[in-house]
Amino acid sequence: QSEDSDKSSAESDSETEVEQVSGYHKLLATLKTSPESETEEEEDESESEEPEESEAEMGSEGSQETGEAEGGEEDKNDVPEEEEEATAEQILSQEQADGTDTSCDPRHGVIEEFTDVKHESEFSLETNFMEEESGDCNADKRDSNPFKQHMDKELEDKEIEKMSTLPKTSNQSQWPRVGQLIFSSTLEKHKTLKADKEVDVKQLHLHKPLESTWPKVNKQFLSSVDKPSDSPFTPLQRELFCIMNSYRDLFYPERNALTNGEEIRHAYCLHALNHVLKANAQVLSNNTKRRDRKPGTDTDDYRDQGLTRPKVLMIVPFRECALRIVHALISLLEVNDKKKIDVSNKKRFKGEFGSDPEEKPPNLKRPEDYEAVFAGNIDDHFRIGVAILQKSMRLYAPFYSSDIIIASPLGIRTVIGAEGEKKRDFDFLSSIEILIIDQADIYLMQNWEHVLHLMKHINLLPLDSHGVDFSRVRMLNLNNWSKYYRQTLLFSALQDPQINSVFNKHCFNYSGQVAVRNMPLTGSISHVAVQLPHVFRRLEAESVTSVIDSRFQFFIDKVLPEYRDAIMSHTLIYVPSYFDYVRLRNYFKKEDLNFTHICEYTKKAAVCRARRFFLKGEKQFLLFTERFHFYKRYTIKGIRNLIFYELPTYSHFYSEICNMLRATDSGVDSTWTCTVLYSKYDAQKLAAVVGIDRTAQMLQSKKNVHLFVTGEN
């Protein structure tokens, strides 16, 4: 967050106050909204009476791009710092009754995190040996095993130099389910992967228990149309897992929380668990061989681990996501109902990562995709270590004793810390072999800087040895080549330049990369249900960096003058970037324009006032941020003129905002207008709104484009 403040300073010179309240206390404040603000007058809108639902993300540090709070009227309501005592006391008494340590729960306001020290020796890789009955000691010696092939390959210096200096070569392929794929690699010897039409579980080289558990666990996603003899994968899972199992990097930008989110989650959980079980089996097997070897035997054959133990890092947005991942991992480890695995601290985990269904008010009406994204516990500040050893799982393992770390971007950022901080640690990221970033689009709504900060600190040489036995460390780790072996799996609901940049600039896997690149044919404009003229106004910019200033200048010189007249009242200006919002708000104040504004930091009472002023026409303009819409999804009444200062990040927000016009009048108003600003650098967003064919025409032409939508097209 401190890094971002530099960026925004130029655009928010007139900001007078800086928010100093912690993200956690803001979260608490949303749980204690005063009754007065609840009863704020609002024309028959049930959501204005809305109880305290999903404001955790809006107030949390993870959703902030800058440290600046809303100026003006919103700042009057300081955030209370007290906790919700009853809840805290109930949890505390319950956990004390269970005999559990409560130091880790952020709800108790204690900084010290709980880590399970009690089971350290039981889950230690150094002191345990392979059980005879597991029968998988020698399974990983098979030459075709993807895990062995990937981790045992010895790269040469010239290949590393090649990957560091030469551009990647790429080729395309069309697969039945995922569509168009772009394969890219610097090392030319890699062949294009072909989609498996049918998959025999035994051919995937899964670790032994997973061969029997996966078909049972995944049964819920298989259609009744599928024949019983068919693959235990859905068509989408089959193709995605084929790429994952080849240890290539993967970017899949069509993850949908409503439709395929859970089947994707299960597929990457299978891959991650398979990797961990194989890696640990190799270490335990070598422990046994070292114990039984004759004195004087060469020990260089047992290089089987990294400089630190964590192998898999899963980045997810909310605690509910971590809960579902852990449940999936447990299910995949339990061979049958009789053979339950031992899970340490399971009760504690359910208490801290679970949610109470009764907490959510039943009368809230939100779109289905909103309900799917914000289901369960939506706290965005968490991290947890998971250790897996044969038939046991340990939750809350210390990071240096963990195999898998599950965290939110904010949760991992607060551990990594910033330059100059005394208490910071990122050595545990040194030997990550699989990085999974799920729901990457949500981090654009939280704080993308946290993701970039993580990418800068992953796979660096550790500053401390952390008790590692260097005779067991792979040469790739000692050579500081870990990043060339790390597989990155990136899942998002959309394509975005910032997400693309992480995949292109921070992923160095020698096995190559696969990106799904399907272009939308129609676009979300086809879902606009009101008759509305859409005017797309093109602005010129010399570079990506100058487009921010070019857009602002274009808006105040060419667009805003047309809307200053009182006849153009009820104008909503949709602003995706908080920086742009602050800049526009400051300009509107300076010009003394009749406006009101709503952003993700606006207090509930101020939101109600702004909506009422706008509906009644007392305020001509409403500045409205994308993040507010993302987290709240209110219907704004009274819109007659729409200006999209920039195309929305989520394409379906375009049709949602346009369809708000019908919330005011039952009929169609011939004076309704919709103006959209775009540049040549908005190609992906534009295609998602108007479709790929129109986008190509619009980018070739330098004229404004007028589209008239007559209901559901």
TrEMBL record:
The alphabetized list of GO BP terms reads: maturation of SSU-rRNA from tricistronic rRNA transcript (SSU-rRNA, 5.8S rRNA, LSU-rRNA)
Out of the domains of life, which is the source? Answer: Eukaryota
> Which stretches are tagged as biased composition: Basic and acidic residues?
1-10, 104-122, 294-304
- Give positions of region: Disordered: 1-123, 284-304
Q: Which SUPFAM superfamilies match?
A: P-loop containing nucleoside triphosphate hydrolases
As for subcellular location, the record says:
Nucleus, Nucleolus
Q: Where is the composition biased (Polar residues)?
A: 90-103
Q: Which residues form the UTP25 NTP hydrolase-like domain?
A: 247-514
Which GO MF terms does the UniProt record name? rRNA binding; U3 snoRNA binding
Outline the extent of the UTP25 C-terminal domain.
Answer: 524-708
Alphabetical GO CC annotations of the entry are: small-subunit processome
Sequence ranges of Acidic residues compositional bias: 37-58, 67-87
Q: Which UniProt keywords apply?
A: Developmental protein, Nucleus, Phosphoprotein
How this chain assembles, per its entry, is: Interacts with CAPN3; the interaction is required for CAPN3 translocation to the nucleolus.
> What functional role does this protein have?
Component of the ribosomal small subunit processome for the biogenesis of ribosomes, functions in pre-ribosomal RNA (pre-rRNA) processing. Essential for embryonic development in part through the regulation of p53 pathway. Controls the expansion growth of digestive organs and liver. Also involved in the sympathetic neuronal development. Mediates, with CAPN3, the proteasome-independent degradation of p53/TP53.
Say which family it is in.
Answer: Belongs to the UTP25 family.
Annotated protein name in UniProt: U3 small nucleolar RNA-associated protein 25 homolog
Record the organism.
Answer: Lanius ludovicianus (Loggerhead shrike)
